């Protein structure tokens, strides 16, 4: 009996968080189209397997992660050397070397001699699409939408408010979130609060100050399927510069995102209607710092409430022959 040969393998390294995964979707789809007939495998945290596979760009996920944004070891790769290895993790030699240790037939990386220079002041989606185009692989930075979740939302049409963030530098004060929540509820909107692991006390504080009933508090880290459904069917998402913001962009849900240490021109929403980024210009800060960034603190709750109410009044399906750039409001 003739044995069917295995398809050639492309191993992609992007072992980062949810926002990083979603910002990398356009590049992953470019790889999918650029290597027809190949098996596309993404090295990333196992907990993100579901949204990664939902992109339609991948055949499998190879579990790989390290603390922070460090490069994980890939020594547990037991398959034959990949035909192509692609470094979407970073610009340094560490991620390149982790892939090179697997002895791929071809390696694409910024740190390779034939790789493009690292564009520091380029949006994350554009950066990786331009990286692939250097190697002759077309990719569209706007190809980022996810399919509708199969799981129904427990609160369709709600305004989803997420006060947490992975670092203190990107965490707007709880009392300001609560003040916005009170404005939204006074205007007749159903508000649901969410929080990640370890953010229960923060979310409960916002709920108590904002008058949100316990049944509308979902803290402690929801399963991604439920969180994705909440975001996809929300009328609006309000949050800081977190993975949840990227989930809103991926589902086309209207959003207000609060930026501090990092400019929205590097990590903000796509140039499509319905997204508003609030930001105070200034020198870049530390996105992993422990205390709220000074630029983030210059954003007042009144302008955030006004931004949310403006988007909620706007027709979702307004005609637009020329989609505007995402608005970046500068706080006074």
What's the CATH C level of the largest domain?
Alpha Beta
**How are the strands of the largest sheet arranged?**
8-7-6-9-10-11-12
Can you say what the CATH homologous superfamily of the largest domain is? Glycogen Phosphorylase B
What's the count of strands?
A: 12
Q: Quick check: average pLDDT?
A: 92
Written overview of the protein:
The protein is α/β, with parallel strands linked by helices and 332 residues long. It has 12 helices and 12 strands. The chain has 2 domains: 9-134, Rossmann fold; 159-330, Rossmann fold (3-Layer(aba) Sandwich). The chain has helices at residues 18-23, 25-34, 49-54, 93-100, 124-134, 174-186, 200-210, 224-232, 243-251, 264-267, 294-297, 301-313, and strands at residues 9-13, 39-44, 60-63, 84-87, 106-108, 159-162, 191-194, 217-218, 236-240, 255-258, 275-279, 327-330. The strands form 2 sheets. It has a 7-stranded parallel sheet, with helices on both faces. The chain is elongated and about 60 Å long.
């Amino acid at each position: 009996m003739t044995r069917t040969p295995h398809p050639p393998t492309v191993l992609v390294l992007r072992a980062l968080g949810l926002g990083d995964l979603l910002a990398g979707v356009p590049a992953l789809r470019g790889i999918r189209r650029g290597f027809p007939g190949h098996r596309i495998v993404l090295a990333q945290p196992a907990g993100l397997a579901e949204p990664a596979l939902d992109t339609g760009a991948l055949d499998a996920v190879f579990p790989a992660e390290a603390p922070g944004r460090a490069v994980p070891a890939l020594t547990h790769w037991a398959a034959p050397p990949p035909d192509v290895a692609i470094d979407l993790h970073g610009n340094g030699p560490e991620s390149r070397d982790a892939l090179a240790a697997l002895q791929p037939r071809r390696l694409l990386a910024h740190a390779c001699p034939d790789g493009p220079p690292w564009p520091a002041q380029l949006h994350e989606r554009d950066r990786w699409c331009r990286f692939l185009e250097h190697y002759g692989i077309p990719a569209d930075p706007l190809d980022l939408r996810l399919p509708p979740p199969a799981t129904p939302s427990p609160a369709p049409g709600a305004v989803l408010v997420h006060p947490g963030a992975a670092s203190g530098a990107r965490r707007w004060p709880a009392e300001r979130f609560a003040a916005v929540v009170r404005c939204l509820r006074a205007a007749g909107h159903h508000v649901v609060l969410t929080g990640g692991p370890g953010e229960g006390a923060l979310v409960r504080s916002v709920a108590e100050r904002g008058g949100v009933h316990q049944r509308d508090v979902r803290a402690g880290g929801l399963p991604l399927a439920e969180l994705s459904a909440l975001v996809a069917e929300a009328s609006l998402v309000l949050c800081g510069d977190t993975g949840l913001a990227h989930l809103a962009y991926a589902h086309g849900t209207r959003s207000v995102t609060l930026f501090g240490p990092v400019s929205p021109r590097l990590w903000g929403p796509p140039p499509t209607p319905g997204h508003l980024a609030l930001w105070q210009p200034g020198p870049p800060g530390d996105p992993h710092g422990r205390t709220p960034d000074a630029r983030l603190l210059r954003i007042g709750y009144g302008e955030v409430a006004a931004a949310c109410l403006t988007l909620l009044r706007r027709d979702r399906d307004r005609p637009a022959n020329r989609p505007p750039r995402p608005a970046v409001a500068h706080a006074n």
